[in-house]
Amino acid sequence: MSLYSDYMAEIATRKAELGLNPKPIDSADLLSEIIEQIKDTTNEHREDSLKFFIYNTLPGTTSAAGVKAKFLKEIILGQQTVAEISSEFAFELLSHMKGGPSIEVLLDLALGDDESVSRPAADVLKTQVFLYEADTDRLSVAFKKGNAIAKEILESYAQAEFYTKLPDIDEKIDVVTYIAGEGDISTDLLSPGNQAHSRADRELHGKCMITPEAQQEITELQKQHPNAKVMLIAEKGTMGVGSSRMSGVNNVALWAGKQASPYVPFVNIAPVVAGTNGIAPIFLTTVDVTGGIGLDLKNWVKKVDANGNTVTDENGDPVLEEAYSVATGTLLTIDTKAKKLYKGDEELVDVSSAFTPQKVEFMKAGGSYAVVFGKKLQTFAAYTLGVEAPQVYAPSKEISHADQGLTAVEKIFNRNAVGVASDTPLHAGSNVRVKVNIVGSQDTTGPMTAQELEAMAASTISPMVDGAYQSGCHTASVWDAKAQANIPKLMAFMNKFGLITARDPKGVYHSMTDVIHKVLNDITVDDRAIIIGGDSHTRMSKGVAFGADSGTVALALATGESAMPIPESVKVTFKGNMAKHMDFRDVVHATQAQMLKQFGGENVFQGRIIEVHIGTLMADQAFTFTDWTAEMKAKASICISNDETLIKSIELAKSRIQIMIDKGMENEAKTLHGLIKLADERIAGIKSGEQPPLAPDDNAKYYAEVLVDLDQIAEPMIADPDVNNEDVSKRYTHDVIRPVSYYNDKPVDLGFVGSCMVHKGDFQIIAKMLRNLEQQNGSVTFNAPLVVAAPTYNIVDELKAEGDWEILAKYAGFEFDDANPKTAARTKYENILYLERPGCNLCMGNQEKAEPGDTVIATSTRLFQGRVVADSSEKKGESLLGSTPLVVLSTVLGRFPSIEEYKAAVEGIDLTRFAPPTEELTTKYTGQAVPVKVI
C-alpha cells in the first residue's frame, strides 16, 4: 500500500471511531506522494490532495513543511503549474508557514535577480518574524554586498513593520460567560493527565476538555451569541492552578478561541479566561503565548461587619458575598481602552492588570513568541544598518527605588537581565528579558514542545543555555503502546536538538526515568541561575525556577531567553525547635497553615516568590519545601543557604552530573562537562569570598514576612483535599492542613511514597521502619498496599550499595524490572509493598492510579480531583498528603495512627532534621543596592 492509502485508511478510522477530521500532515514522504497526485491532473485523488496540501500540512520545520515550501517555490518560478495555486496564492501560503524552510525559500526568491519574483518575496518577508541566525546572516551578507532588496527588508525590520502594520486589538470585546467550575480550576480539568499521550494531536486532545456536556454547552452559547466570545470562568476560585499546561490553553482556544491561520488546522489562539481570584501565574503565561486575555474578576469579596472587620464562618474562614453575577450565559463587555469590565453601561470591575502594555502587544501580535522574536529581529536589523532602533514596542518596565535594597529574586533578575536601559538596579514590578541558564522538558508535554519548536522554525538549542534535559519520568510507570509510540520519537528529536536526554536514541546508555525536577536540581550548579521547566514543580533549591508551559519551554530552548516581570517576594524565616518525632514535610505543611492564620486566610504566597531562609538544609532536602510552593500557588521559590551548605549542595550536584557522564549521557556539545566547570567556578567564588552565596540585602522590601514557629508543630501535618466540604469552592485547594489526630483511626486504602517530594533520606526512613517493625513483631505485614517509587536511579543504586534496598526488596511483593517493564497499568492492589520504577508514578495519574474511591495517604503533591484517585459511585476518592513515616505506618496499620503509635514507630529514627539558621542570611546594605552582576 502507498503512504496515501495508509493515510486515507487512518482518516476513515478517525472519522468512524472518534468522529475526527484528518490528522495534520508532518511527513515529507506522505506530502511528496500527495504532490505527485496534484501534478497528475487525471488522478482520482487530486482534489483531496490539493486540500491536504493547502489546508492540512503543518508549518515550521516539520519535514512536510520543507517539501511544501520547495513545491511552492517551483510554482512561483514557473517550474510547476497548478491551476488552483497561482504565484500570488503560493506567496500567501508561504507567509503562513512561520519560518524554517519557508524563510529559506523566500530569501532565495527575494535575493535573486528576477524582480518580478524578488519584490513579492520581499513583501512577504517583511511580515515574518521567525528568523534565525542562518537567515539573518544571509540578509546581512547580501546587504553588505549592496543588494537593494536586502537593504529594504532590513529597513522594514528596523522599523518593526511586521508588528506596527498589524491591526490594533478591538476596543470593545463582547463575551458570554461560562462557569467551567466552582472553586480553583486545575489544568487537569482542561487537559487531564491521563490523556497526556494525545496532546500533540490537538483535535483529539480537545475532546477531553472538562466534559462532552461542557463542550456542547460552550458550542450552544456560541450559536446563541455569535458576536461574543465564550469566557471560561473559575467561580469563587483561581483559573489554571497546578500543572503547567499549554494543552489546557490549547483546548480552551480550540473550543472558544479563533483559528490562527486558515491554512493550519486546530491551532487556535486568543481565548478569554477568568477567575474570581484571577489566573494562576503559570497558566497566565500560557494564555500570553496565545495572545489571550486573562481576567481577575473579583466578583466575590470578603463580607465585613459594621466595624469593617471580616466576617468569618464557624471554621474561621472569611465569608464571601457576591459583588456581581457572572452566571453562565451573562453578556459582558471588555473595554480594552478603559481597561474595565462592563455589563451594559454598568462598570463591574477594573481589569487593567490584563491589559498592561506588554500583554496588549502579545494580543496584537497573536502571541508572546512573535513579540520576543520581533524584538530580536528589530535589534539585529538596526545594528546591521548602523541605525538606532525606534521605540516601537512598549519599553521594558524598569522600576528602581532609591535607598532600597534587593531581594534575592531581584538580584537574580538583575544579574541575568538583557537589554536593560537603566543604570540603577531594578526592583519588583520591572518587566525585563532575562537569560535562561537551565531548561527542562518533560515527556508528557515534550511532544508539544517539539511541535512548538517546529512551529517557530527552531532547529538547534540556543548557545546561551548552559544545560537542558528531556525527561522520561511522567511515562515511567507503564511502557505501554502509547509510550512506545511517543517517547522514542520525542527523545530522538530532543537529542538531535541538543538536549541531554533520558533515553538514548542510539541505545548506548540505560534509559533513565528520573523525575525531571530532581535532574534539573542536580544540573543547576549556580544559586544565581534562572531555570525554566515544563512542569509546575520546576522549583529548584538553587537559583530561581519557573514552571512553564510547553511553548515557553520551547522559546527558552530556541532563544535562551524569557521575558517576565520581576515578582514580589514573601520572606519566610523560622524560629523554635523541631520535635524529634517530626519530619521536615510537617514543617512544609505547617508553613502553609501558619501563613494562612497569620494573614487572616489571605494567601500572601499566591503569585509571588517565596524566599525561604533555610540555611543549613542541603539542596536535596530543601527541595521538599521549594517543590511544595507550587501548591502554595507561589510563582517560584528561592532557598537562601549559608556558605558551607551551598558548597556541599554544589559538590553533590557535581557528583550526580559525573554519574550522567559515566553512563554515556554526554552530548557533542559537552554540556555536562561545561556544567562541572561552572560548578567548580561557583565553588571557587564562594570559598574566595569574591562571589558569596546569594542573599537579599538587609533592607530589601517584601510584600509580607512569614515567621514559622517550629515549636507549634507537635503532630504530623496532613494536607487534605476536604472532599466533603459543603462549599465546593473550598475542596481541592491545598489550604486545608490538619494534624494526624483529626483522623482518629480513619481507614487507609493505599499509601504512596514517591514523586519529586522525597529524597534518599526518605527511603532510608522506610528501611529503618521496616527493620524496627521486624525486630518488634518478627515480620512486617501490610494492611494496605504501599507503593514506593524512588525519584531517581541514583537513589536506587546508592540504597543497593549501602544495604537499605535489601530490606525493601525483602518485603516487596513486586519489584520493577527494566528488562521486562510493565505494559499495562495496574487497576487492583494487594496488601503488599510495590517497588516501582523510578519516576512520577501515582502523582501523575496518567498511567497508574489508586482504585476508585480509595482513601490514599501519599508523599505526593497533588490533591486534584481524580488525579491520584478517581471517585467511585459509592465514595469520593481522597488523596491526603503527609510525610514518609506517616505513610508507611498507615499502610502497616491499614488506618491513620494515633500520635502515640506514631511516636513509638519513629523512635530512634533520624528523620529529616532542620534547625533555623543562627545567623541572618542577608547582605549589609551600604547605601546603594548592588546587583550580583548586570549583563
From TrEMBL:
Protein name: Aconitate hydratase
A Pfam family per the record: Aconitase_2_N
GO cellular component, one term: cytosol
Keyword Iron among UniProt keywords: yes
Keywords: Iron, Iron-sulfur, Metal-binding
Segments forming domain Aconitase/3-isopropylmalate dehydratase large subunit alpha/beta/alpha: 410-894
Source superkingdom: Bacteria
GO molecular function, one term: metal ion binding
Domain Aconitase B HEAT-like: 7-163
Swiss-Prot/TrEMBL GO biological process terms: propionate catabolic process, 2-methylcitrate cycle; tricarboxylic acid cycle
Record-annotated Aconitase B swivel domain positions: 179-406
